[in-house]
Every structure is written in structure tokens, then in C-alpha cells.
Amino acid sequence: MTDKEFRVNDVSLDHLDEIADIWLETLPYNFKVIIGRKIVNNYINEIFKSSKNLKKGIFKSNKLIGFVFFGNDKNIIKKLFLRNFTYIIFCFVKDLIKLKHKKIFCYIDVSIYLISSLLKKREIENSSELLIIAISRKEQNNNLGSILITESLKDNYFDKINKIFVITLKSARENINFYEKNSFKIIDTIYGRVLMELFFPK
């Protein structure tokens, strides 16, 4: 395998189904996946509605095998929650009735995290959040995640940005190692998550 086999390019809503498939396949414990594909699709749609978000994909023989999104998660989540409030409550009640303990715990865990995060009031001026990165399971362990980040950072989107931050589970050591490999540093913890940042020298 060589890096020349792959290309990093913008993705569009034409790739929605492929993006959702990769997301659902590779991130089964992601909160949006736990609620269901409808929420994943709606989140992707919200990302594509704003030019303030960067959407990149990595392709192999014109087939999308991974993607990364940068933007402001708080704005996206706020819109997503408001537009899907009834559906989210319905899914929670359904899982509660069916006694799906792992899913119920996830709802509670994310709710407490969101409250904790709001109380911290992170400074986001001149910054962007790495919202999500995913590589198709068949293509993992080939350094493609790092290639995707490195190539994405060359986009003009980052010209006025001083730093990128990402939040990942404190227990997800593999994820933390990946971000540290790509020059992110842990700067804070928020209810079972770590906040990591990558600064751009100006």
C-alpha cells in the first residue's frame, strides 16, 4: 500500500449514504448511532447546511472509505435536538420499556456530559472542533486516519483558525493515542472525556 493509492477530497450530500454506512459500521457506541440511523443522517445533513463546516473524505479508486468533519458541534447539536426532540424522547422511552440497559446508561451519560460541558463554557473563538473521523473497518490500521487529517489541514478553511480541539472518551486509549500521534495534546477532562487541542503556530 502507498499513500498514492488514496486521495483526500471534499465530500457532499451525494455521499450521505456512504458516510452514514461507515459511521454506523465503525462507531457502534456513538450516541447518535445508538439512537438510530435517522439521527445520524440528520446530523450529517446539518453539517452540510453550513459552509462553516469542513467536510473531507478519503477515497480509494473513487470509493469513499473514510471521512472527517470539522465545525461547531454545539450549534449542530442544538439544531438537531430541537428538530428531533420528539423522536429522541420516543427512542429513549422505547429503550426504557425494553430495558436496554446499555442504551439507557448512554442516554444518561451523554446528558450529564452535555450539562457539564455547558458549565465549563469552552473558549471556541478562532477554533474548530474535529467533530468525527471514521475509516471503513476494512481499511483501518493503514495510517489512513492520519493521512486524512494531514491532508485536511492543508485546506484554506484553517487559514484563520488558531487551534483545533477534539473530545474523546477518557477510557478510549486507542483514540487518545491516535490524536497524540497527530500532535493533539490533552488539556482538560470533562465527565469521562478528555479535551485535546492542536495549535497552529501563526
Give a brief description.
With 202 residues, the chain is α+β, with helices and mostly antiparallel strands.
Explain what this protein looks like in three dimensions.
The N and C termini lie far apart (35 Å). The protein is an alpha+beta fold. Helix content is 46%, strand content 25%. It has a seven-stranded mixed beta sheet with strand order 1-2-3-4-5-7-6. It is globular and about 50 Å long. The model has no long low-confidence stretch (mean pLDDT 89). It contains seven helices and seven strands, in the order E-H-H-H-E-E-H-H-E-H-E-H-E-E. Helix 1 packs across helix 3 and helix 3 packs antiparallel against helix 4.
The arrangement of helices and strands along the chain is EHHHEEHHEHEHEE
| Beta-strand content bin | 15-25%
- Structural class by helix and strand composition: alpha+beta
Major sheet attributes: 7 strands, mixed
Structural shape: globular
Number of helices: 7
β-strand number: 7
Biggest sheet, strands in spatial order?
A: 1-2-3-4-5-7-6
Cα distance spanning the termini: 35 Å
Helix fraction bin:
40-55%
Rg over CA atoms, rounded to whole Å, is 17 Å
Regions with pLDDT < 50 over 5+ consecutive residues? Answer: none
Mean pLDDT: 89
